[in-house]
Amino acid sequence: MADLINDPISGTSIPEPGKKSHPKRIRVVPDSLKKFRDITALAAAGGPPEKIAAQKKKGKLTARERISYLVDEGSFQEIGLLMESRCTDFGIKDKHIKGDGVVTGFARVNGRPIALFSEDFTQLGGSLGRTHADKIANIMDMALEARMPVIGILDSGGARIQEGVDSLDGYGEIFYRNTKSSGIIPQISVIVGPCAGGAVYSPALTDFVFMVKGISNMFVTGPEVVKAATGEEVDFETLGGSMTHASKSGVCHFVANSEPDCFRQLKELISFLPQSRYEAPPAHETKDPVDRKILLLEKLCEVDPRKPYRVHHIIWWLSDDHRFLEVHHDFAKNIVVGFMRLGGQTVGVVANNPAHMAGALDINASDKAARFIRFLNNFNIPILTLVDVPGYWPGVAQEHGGIIRHGAKLLYAYSEASVPKVTLVLRKAYGGAYIAMSSKFLHGDLNFSLPSAEIAVMGPRGAIEILYSRQIKEAKDEERDALRVKLAKEYSDKFASPYQTASTGSLDEVIEPATARPRLIEAFRFLSNKRRPGTHERTGNIPL
Fold first, then answer.
1. Could you tell me the residue ranges of all domains in the chain?
2. How many CB atoms within 10 Å of residue 123?
3. Is 3.90.226.10 the CATH number for 295-457+497-526?
4. CATH topology identical between 46-270 and 295-457+497-526
5. Beta carbons of 85 and 93 less than 8 angstroms apart
6. Residues annotated as catalytic (active site), given as ranges
7. For the segment 100-141, what is each residue's pLDDT rounded down to a tens digit?
């Protein structure tokens, strides 16, 4: 056997030059490499075992487990693993806590690059110190420059008291970046633990917020402070739990039953979104026939305009493979917003829902729809509007609450939007609400109607009570109901007919109900080059 020499770099025994032999591998790990591996393994382990056990006892995942549930296997590239707090008070520096309570880096979700950070509650309660904030700010800066979505997984005790104003300044750095990135890259927040005080404003500035039942809480002031200040007694879940924010405040867009379910929903949402304002949303192949007929819409033409139904059924039948991802399911249920695909193309849906408040517009519905429309416009997603609206919801509370101011947001959002806008009037569209729901003169591109639709200043039954009040009053009791029916039909035929509306150009066409799906798909295809991504005026997705 040939003489062997040891390669000092690889640690492998190799033959002397000019001599042939199969090397015998003798693996020698250098001390520097061993030290590196020990340090990184300790840093990646997170907090002490007892803290991790406490996290598990609450039914919560660790920061790194959450990342593994979300991202493609083996794709996560960490940044800032070895960073430590610069705080010299209260012995924090002496603890040498690697990562400073947050994991940051890049990864892929369904093959597409994303940036993310995941707060680690097992390290100093996930509290935000200046290094913690610097890591988040750095990954946000890199995401903006690389034009990719950023996802924040929040599980934190809030500002780190030991670092004083430095921790508050850290929040300021993050809020500034949330605002600068708004409308340029998608920003998503996942609340999987406490989120209190100033920490809540970063999620509020992002585009979508996820929460998990039983473990997520958001509030500016906690139950004890509320009791001290107002005398009100309230628990964490009632004050700031997932369903509170999903149904009452509107802060939360998606609620999950568990953390794995939350990350499944998040991956589905990402599949609809472009990487940035400079890209079109991703297209997906579908075997669902473009020309599939929607017989349900023929039946809708026979339904009394006052009878409620869930507009979700219409959306499901129109969309590819009957798939629809609803946003804000539990908030302002009188209007439905979400994502669907038509002919493989991503489309945002805004639809009145007659099953709740008759589908009328109110303060919350206007805010909900307006912000969603602005998101769609920022990220090049076409808008489909399904209209079945009796008007604005009446009442003193609405007027005093600012329905005029809030309702104007919806008008502004539709008027501002320059993405393709296609509208279909399903049943009725009355008054100012007809105008607000992407009408032709808010520059809807293509406005269609079903044959049974009623489009007018107000409903026929209300209109005749004003226009023919004397005739109705003077009619005999036994003839009054028949007269109302007759006058309502005459009014409807003359003033509320879709054919009358189409004759003035306020509608582009009255369509065959069963062919609505292919008509809508073709409409969006014709409009596909209306605007090139990134050429539109830059506007942020300001919270409404």
1. 46-270, 295-457+497-526
2. 24
3. yes
4. yes
5. yes
6. 197-198, 432-433
7. 889 999 999 999 999 999 999 998 888 888 899 999 999 999
